[in-house]
Amino acid sequence: MKKFETIILGGGASGCMCMLSSKQESVAIIDKENKIAKKLLVTGNGRCNISNLNVNSNFYNINIDKYLKKFNSPQTLKFFEGLGLICYADEEGRLYPISNTAKSVVNVIENAVQKKNVSTYLDNNVLDVKRDNDKFIIITDKDKFLCKKLVVATGKSDILDKLGVKYKQFTPSLCSLKTNSTHSLNNVRIRNVKVTGVCDGKEKSDVGEILFKEAGISGIALFNISTLFARAGKYEGKIYLDLMPKISSDELESYLLKRRDIDLAVPNFFDGMFAREVAYEILNQAKVDENKTSTKLTKEEIKKFIKIIKNLEFTVKGYFPNNQVYSGGVSLDDLDDNLQHKVIKNLYFCGEICNIDGECGGYNLQWAWTSGHIVGKNI
Description:
The protein is α+β, with helices and mostly antiparallel strands. Helix content is 28%, strand content 27%. The protein has ten helices and 18 strands. The strands form four sheets. Strands 1, 2, 6, 7, 8, 9 and 18 form a seven-stranded mixed β-sheet that branches.
């Protein structure tokens, strides 16, 4: 049996930050992957959006200000600069490595871990975790470990059940949503769309880019809306798209009434405004006679177009298993300010295992860095 003062379960973002922030010498990381921080390679479309200059609690499911005061995005930037990583911010405040590749982030983390000369046990699947008086025993498919302090930084895991820790059920978040048929819109991308989700009487809106799938909707704006359904624990409700959010209904009516005079066949009425596939969807939902010309469109039909353009409706019927994070986990109410369990002494949690989830834009990784740093400083 291998013995350590502290063992960190999970070698992802929060686990690595925890280890690098700790002054503890007798520490080990156990991870099922064959490489530490491996999940970072696919974040930010392979570019690794490590944080955001605009981080605040408004981008998360609950208020985490007291934790961000301990370690925020400027401190994260300074930390990584100390490891040799150079970053830049885009127009929305998203922080990326200047190389525009996640490999750079993983490389500097690997270098720092090797320099610190800690024990890493990769390709180790945790089979069981249990308490033995004031110690913890971890059994993997390769070995057996004993420690005084245990940090759980695994993300979604059955380890919580093994330790008898209460938690909110995990549900996929930041994911594409299945809807009623969008076959005719498959692979159509629309930018600057206002997306509004409605679930259990609550609603959430975002403006950005969407991408239609054969039976659903994807894209960054839709990912952010998916948090509404994830936090409710159900993927049922409505999605409404405002295809022209910068134009009021009255302005749109005035424009379309003038547009009638161009004298187009109704199927071509929206040419120059929308992609053909989107125009057909509007016409299909409006159920307007497509055999007449635009000059024959009535004011009532124009109003019907406007209603659809400003509220293109889809019914949510599930999600696609491409989620970037999970909603749910251990409640911060059950942890102290250092993220130690209030009942089980020397048991700490950081990263996605906590009931904290944020929107797209580097917010979830910032929670990983923040929580990992806090735990690392206190173990």
